[in-house]
Amino acid sequence: MTQLFTRLLLATEHTDYDSGAEAMAFALAQRCQLPLAAVLPLVSNPEYEALAPQIAVKAEREAASKMIQLREQASAQGVHMDLRLRRGEEPYQEIVAEAQALGSDMIIIRRRGKRSFFANLLVGEMVSKVVTHAPCHVLIVPRQARMWQQRVLVAAEATAQGQQIVAIAVAVAAQCALPIHLVCVVAAQTLCAQADAFVTEMLKLAQAQGVAAQGEVRVGKPYTEIFAAREACQADLMVMGGRGEASIGRALIGGVAQKVMGLADVPVMVLHI
Fold first, then answer.
1. Annotation: CATH topology of 152-265
2. Residue-range domain boundaries for the chain
3. For residue range 147-206, what is the model confidence (pLDDT) as tens digits?
4. In the CATH scheme, what is the code of domain 8-141?
5. For residue 6, which of 34, 50, 55, 205 sits 20 to 30 Å off, Cα-Cα?
6. pTM of the predicted model, to two decimals?
């Protein structure tokens, strides 16, 4: 079977907050027998560094030490990793630039770090910007999360974009030999017929790919119902789109995606269609 993702990029600052993303990247590289690229962004401000060069020297030393540790960890896992240090004023810009330069098809990144506001609810600012501006799909990994082994939950609307999201989620489930659960959330009962038809069609697509599939339509607030569905089916990977079809440009992540990314205790794969 053709690999769904072939150019993985781990984005990490090698802190305790990054441990889940690093473990996930190593596990995916091992499981799919893929080389792994990694980028460690280092905040660099030439004007500030000119005034306080000792701080810049210390940051460089710490970054060099982190790179040595990362390479040793990857080697211990039997993973070949091409690790690069990128300097810039905005870490997210360096991560996005590295993904563009490498033609990455998935970025693997932590959910939040110590600088996050509302740390109990939201995704870190840097991570949110990576997801918003990424040229590819992004896998957001909570610190304690591990490789999925139970079920893939995909949340999608009855649209052309939703069909593409489900198709990718089905491919992920097929590669991992896991069942899939589709949830389609609508705002009112009057929209259920269209959603039911969509779910039925998508389940046939999954079954044609040899994937065991279940689906349901829920009425209510999207993120609330998505989490209720995940809890009920015990999925340990969530897949969804990053923005609705009505979004303009790449200014924002969709509000539902933002909440799911921030509240989920399992990895969330955000697809850019």
1. Rossmann fold (3.40.50)
2. 8-141, 152-265
3. 999 999 999 999 999 999 999 999 999 999 999 999 999 999 999 999 999 999 999 999
4. 3.40.50.620
5. 205
6. 0.91
